[in-house]
Write a structure and sequence with these properties.
Strand content: 25-35%
Protein name: Metallothionein
Strand order of the largest sheet: 1-2
Organism: Persicimonas caeni
Distance between the termini: 43 Å
Bound molecules: zinc ion
């Protein structure tokens, strides 16, 4: 089965098909999937590949960034 990556347009025979929030996405590699789907930290702009910290609909890479945005109550899990 060949499918075209929707980020870079690469035609690949082992595509990653990801269902996310009711939509279906097709990628040729994880890098493209991350590029399309991973949120950015609301403070430093870093790509959040792990769980991140979601506060009021904003994503932050760590508790420190959440605190800088005024969400001091968030703690990283040790
Ligand atoms: Zn791609
Ligand atoms: Zn951050």
């Amino acid at each position: 089965m060949r499918m075209e990556c929707q980020v870079c347009g690469n035609d690949y025979d082992k595509p990653l098909i990801i269902e996310y929030e009711g939509d279906e996405y097709v990628f040729d590699c994880f890098e493209c999937a991350v590029d399309e789907l991973a949120p950015d930290c609301g403070t430093c702009g870093v790509r959040i590949i792990g769980h991140g910290n979601e506060v009021d609909g904003e994503m932050y890479c760590c508790a420190n960034c959440a605190a800088q945005a005024g969400h001091g109550e968030i703690r990283d899990r040790a």
